[in-house]
């Protein structure tokens, strides 16, 4: 069965630190990849998505993610985090022909002011 | 205008009761979903409808019954509520069943069963 792994359950950083959140998926075929963010008490919002083309994808709020097919990874990065980035981050994947998105277990990001 | 709206936002009820959660989207999307987010924030798909037809029905107790009167609405009815049903339930929609555009989520319904 397809699955998504986010190995970091809770990441704590200081403001201005660089961020990288790991995401690996298990599916051998063509996939679409997503990162969603859930701010405290709010719904999930799409940060960025990858379908094809340039494996380095830029999203909103200065986030970017790199798709490395050989490693089945889609890590999320931000060069300098802010306190307002405190949230839960979810990696998600769907095989191109599928009708549902499978989410990882989420990574809680806490930023110290 | 809220793109995907759910009601109610909070629901506290006793074990054994029957309750419904409503979801409406005004995006013109064809496909709608229900996800359950447990206390550990894990998101699991429950159901999906494409243009009023059920296309995904994950391993969910049959106490849960979705209903889609039209493609803009997807309601979730839960019979005989149990403590383990306590969670946040998110409705979502996508342009089509192939999800390539990603989902737009509602703000969630926090269900607490006491």
Written description of the protein model:
- The complex is a heterodimer of chains A (113) and B (114).
- Chain A is mainly beta and 113 residues long.
- Helices cover 0% and strands 53% of the residues of chain A.
- In chain A, strands 2, 5, 6, 10, 11 and 12 form a six-stranded mixed sheet that branches.
- In chain A, strand 5 (31-38) and strand 6 (44-50) form a beta hairpin.
- The model of chain A has no long low-confidence stretch (mean pLDDT 92).
- Chain B is mostly beta strands and 114 residues long.
- In chain B, the strands form two sheets. In chain B, strands 2, 4, 5, 6, 9, 10 and 11 form a seven-stranded mixed sheet that branches. A four-stranded antiparallel sheet of chain B has the order 1-3-8-7, with no helix packed on it.
- The model of chain B has no long low-confidence stretch (mean pLDDT 92).
For the sheet with most strands of chain B, the description reads: 7 strands, mixed
Q: What fraction of the residues of chain B are assigned to beta strands by DSSP?
A: over 45%
Please write the string of helix (H) and strand (E) elements of chain B.
EEEEEEEEEEE
Counted by DSSP, the helix tally of chain A is: 0
Shape of chain A: globular
SS content category of chain B: mainly beta
How many β-strands of chain B, per DSSP?
Answer: 11
The total strand number of chain A stands at 12
Weakly predicted, low-confidence segments of chain A: none
Q: What's the end-to-end separation of chain A, in Å?
A: 40 Å
Uncertain segments of chain B:
none
Structural class of chain A: mainly beta
* Helix share, percent of chain B: under 10%
Give the CA-based shape of chain B: globular
Report the β-strand fraction of chain A as a percent range: over 45%
Oligomer status:
heterodimer
Question: What is the residue-averaged pLDDT of chain B?
Answer: 92
Helix count from the secondary structure assignment of chain B:
0
């Amino acid at each position: 069965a397809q699955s998504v792994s986010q190995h970091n359950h809770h990441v704590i950083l200081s403001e201005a630190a660089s961020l990288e959140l790991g995401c690996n998926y298990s599916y051998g075929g063509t996939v679409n990849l997503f990162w969603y963010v859930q701010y405290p008490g709010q719904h999930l919002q799409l940060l960025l998505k990858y379908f094809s083309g340039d494996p380095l994808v830029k999203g909103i709020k200065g986030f970017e993610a790199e798709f490395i097919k050989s490693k089945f990874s889609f890590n999320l990065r931000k060069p300098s985090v802010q306190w307002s980035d405190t949230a839960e981050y979810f990696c998600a994947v769907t095989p191109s022909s599928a009708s549902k998105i499978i989410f990882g277990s989420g990574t809680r990001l806490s930023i110290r002011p | 205008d809220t793109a995907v709206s759910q009601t109610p936002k909070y629901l506290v009820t006793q074990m054994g009761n029957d309750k419904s959660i409503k979801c409406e989207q005004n995006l013109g999307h064809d496909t709608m979903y229900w996800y359950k987010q447990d206390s550990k924030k894990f998101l699991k798909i429950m159901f999906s409808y494409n243009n009023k037809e059920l296309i995904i029905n994950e391993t969910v107790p049959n106490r849960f019954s979705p209903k889609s009167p039209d493609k803009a609405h997807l309601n979730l009815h839960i019979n005989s509520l149990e403590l383990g049903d306590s969670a946040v339930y998110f409705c979502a929609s996508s342009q089509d069943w192939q999800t390539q555009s990603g989902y737009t989520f509602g703000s969630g319904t926090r269900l607490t069963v006491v």
